[in-house]
Structure to design on (244 residues):
């Protein structure tokens, strides 16, 4: 999508106010393109920028509904720009026991959102990335259906028990071993019991361990492969650009 010359757009424009979908823009240094952010925001009823996620939003011409964090990485220019756009701001102390992302998830759970799409959460410091993934897994345990859309991959979070125990991927017709994206099933925190069909290496109530690599780099052989999580927490990583 071309953005040049277009005015900043308020998140949720044209979307039903009853929708409980939220986009969370974090501040990874390897961020999503302006086109990707624009596409993601256009389908959401609410957008939250987490600290320096405000910089990515401003660059894409997306006005968040909420800016949250200690704002130590948010520039004065972004704060001033959003101050004129009725953006709600929640500021926390720099010295605290939770990351800005964790505080943002707490706020979204409190506000009753059901589906969370996050972006700009991977690609930075390893410690930040691991903590962020743990925060998103925990969000699934608290009732949010969580997906992270990054420039070259999509991460889908599953929890059993939880709101997303069964997943059907849709790759369209014409899928083959030559053009299929790899799909990895990564257990988080403890063993996960997983079944998967429509893959080169199917699974039937297999135990995947976070200390082993059995679930890495599977290949879909069906246009609609299915994954069922019997127990545990699982991150499904699809290695493909999510959007043009």
């Amino acid at each position: 999508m071309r953005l040049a010359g277009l005015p900043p757009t308020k998140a949720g424009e044209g979307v039903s106010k009853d929708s409980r979908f939220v986009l969370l823009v974090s501040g990874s240094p390897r961020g999503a393109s302006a086109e990707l952010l624009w596409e993601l925001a256009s389908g959401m009823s609410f957008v939250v920028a987490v600290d320096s996620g405000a910089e990515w939003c401003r660059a894409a011409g997306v006005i968040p509904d909420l800016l949250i964090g200690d704002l130590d990485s948010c520039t004065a220019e972004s704060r001033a720009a959003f101050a004129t756009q009725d953006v709600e701001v929640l500021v926390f102390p720099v010295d605290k026991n939770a990351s800005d992302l964790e505080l943002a998830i707490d706020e979204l759970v409190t506000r009753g959102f059901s589906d969370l799409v996050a972006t700009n959460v991977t690609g930075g410091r390893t410690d930040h990335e691991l903590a962020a993934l743990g925060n998103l897994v925990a969000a699934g345990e608290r009732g949010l259906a969580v997906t992270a859309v990054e420039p070259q991959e999509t991460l889908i979070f599953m929890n059993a028990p939880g709101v997303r125990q069964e997943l059907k991927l849709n790759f369209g017709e014409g899928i083959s071993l030559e053009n299929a994206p790899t799909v990895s099933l990564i257990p988080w925190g403890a063993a996960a019991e997983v079944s998967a069909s429509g893959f080169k290496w199917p699974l039937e109530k297999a135990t995947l361990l976070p200390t082993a690599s059995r679930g890495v780099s599977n290949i879909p052989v069906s246009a609609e492969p299915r994954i069922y999580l019997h127990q545990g927490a699982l991150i499904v990583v699809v290695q493909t650009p999510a959007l043009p």
